[in-house]
User: Fold this.
Amino acid sequence: MSNGVFFYANEGSRRAAGEFDNAVSALNSEGIEFNESKLCESHDELNALVKQRVEEGAKVVFVGGGDGTLGSVSEHFLRKETVFGGFPLGTGNQFAREVGIPGDIAAAAACLAKGRVAAIDMGMCNDQGFITVATMGLTTDIARGLTSKGVLGKASYGPALIKAIQKVEPFEVEIVGGSETIVGEVIQVVVSNGRTHAGPFLASPDATITDGMFDVYTLKPMGFGEMVGTGVLALAGKHTEVEEVDWMKTSTLSIKTQPKIPVILDGEEIWFDSLEFRVEMAGIKALVGPDFRTPQDRLSSISFD
Assistant:
């Protein structure tokens, strides 16, 4: 089944179980026919199928799910000719927003069917790939507090955020970038591969997913009001001007924390003994929306005929 077109989704993603068939039908109606489409019962099954199809030389592999699902299989596409088609079937759908794919199923299908391809950067944390963001600290507590995400969707983030702010514990961090170092007590570390994270917040004023750089920032301990104010500034990427925020741009970095804490890669919690990050510049060929802005030499197209 080499050079074919495939679609796999994670049944555990919030929308996939109920809307996978609708997604397949929407893509079919746009003229995209699949050699195989399957709603996988487990992430292990999904991961194995995606890896197999890429290794066989598939033309396009669509993956349906949330950011955790998309990020967890992204490394299979690294330096491969197979095009990655991320179909938004999760709650946050950060990657879809990043590359200009609508959240609505019919609109997403119409967008993806245009076959616009961009070579986007991929982040690597040790040997684990991610496509949007890696975080430590506050966001870990937020993710753990999303017990009702499957029922409430985006509405569950508000209560989880408030609860996380109330219980967050500072930790010591040392971040060594290419030419800069951040050391001190913090409550949050963000390593962003793209333009935005956690919804509408800009990683920096000029961040992109095609600049070959991570935007890295930390939040020092601060009061609730200060945190809200910093969040408002982050909507325009101006949080980097706040005294309680340290920030750098770098293509490689290492992170040490005391105590050791997990890292959240595209929404999925993972534990590593040490953290080494690097950008794989133009590492993945991905389907993107018509309004996604990127250098012309990173653009191409693909036909589903």
